[in-house]
């Protein structure tokens, strides 16, 4: 069962002027969860087919057969594909999103945020969409955050990069109150 968007983020549903397409598709998937145990969520598995058809390559649809495989990048690829944006072959790699779109110095609503996990110079990472920030953390709408599509707070010091689709119109940073605990590991 899908979980409702937390009340602190209801404002996103009414944001239609500056709401980027990727954010629209991400919000529509909020609450999608991994299957329990050996059961896979067919919705998540279907995103691999969408991303493959959008340019990631047939390898992705053939490879991605279990939702226990990290899927934050796959979630982003689905959002990009449905937005008619390009999807790169290394879309499963969170850090691979550092090559997507163009760099932005400060994030705006719907920008792609890439974070490190484990250690800054390691291989592990996490990727999601910017919905706002407080003094300590970015509020990120992403997949595979606690095994579901959700909004979580991720410490700003973990940020590796901000990426934006070239034609995106972005407003000022969104200042929010801290809501919920800080994520230490999004998987």
Report strand %. Answer: 15-25%
Domain tally = 1
Q: How would you spell out the order of helices and strands?
A: HHHHHEEEEEEE
Main beta sheet: 7 strands, mixed
**Shape summary:** globular
Secondary-structure class: alpha+beta
User: How far is the first residue's CA from the last residue's CA?
Assistant: 19 Å
Mean pLDDT: 93
Plain-language structure description:
The protein is α+β, with helices and mostly antiparallel strands and 187 residues long. It has one domain (7-183). It is built from five helices and seven strands; from the N terminus they run αααααβββββββ. A hairpin with a 3-residue loop joins strand 3 and strand 4. The mean pLDDT is 93.
SSE blueprint:
Elements: H1 11-14, H2 21-28, H3 42-56, H4 58-63, H5 72-82, E1 102-103, E2 112-116, E3 125-133, E4 137-142, E5 150-155, E6 159-164, E7 182-183
Parallel strand pairs: 5-7
Antiparallel strand pairs: 1-6, 2-3, 2-6, 3-4, 4-5
């Amino acid at each position: 069962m899908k979980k409702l968007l937390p009340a602190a983020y209801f404002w996103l549903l009414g944001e239609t002027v500056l709401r980027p397409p990727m954010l629209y598709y991400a919000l529509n998937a909020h609450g999608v969860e991994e299957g329990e145990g050996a059961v896979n969520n067919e919705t998540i598995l279907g995103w691999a087919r969408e991303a493959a058809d959008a340019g990631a390559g047939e390898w992705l649809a053939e490879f991605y057969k279990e939702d226990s495989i990290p899927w934050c990048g796959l979630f982003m690829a689905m959002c990009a594909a449905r937005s008619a944006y390009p999807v790169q072959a290394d879309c499963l790699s969170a850090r691979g999103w550092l090559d997507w779109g163009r760099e932005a110095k400060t994030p705006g609503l719907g920008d792609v945020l890439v974070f490190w996990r484990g250690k800054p110079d390691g291989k592990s990472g996490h990727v999601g969409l910017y919905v706002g920030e407080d003094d300590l953390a970015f509020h990120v709408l992403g997949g595979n955050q606690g095994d579901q599509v959700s909004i979580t707070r991720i410490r700003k010091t973990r940020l590796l990069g901000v990426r934006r689709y070239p034609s995106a119109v972005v407003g000022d940073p969104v200042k929010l109150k801290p809501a919920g605990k800080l994520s230490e590991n999004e998987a």
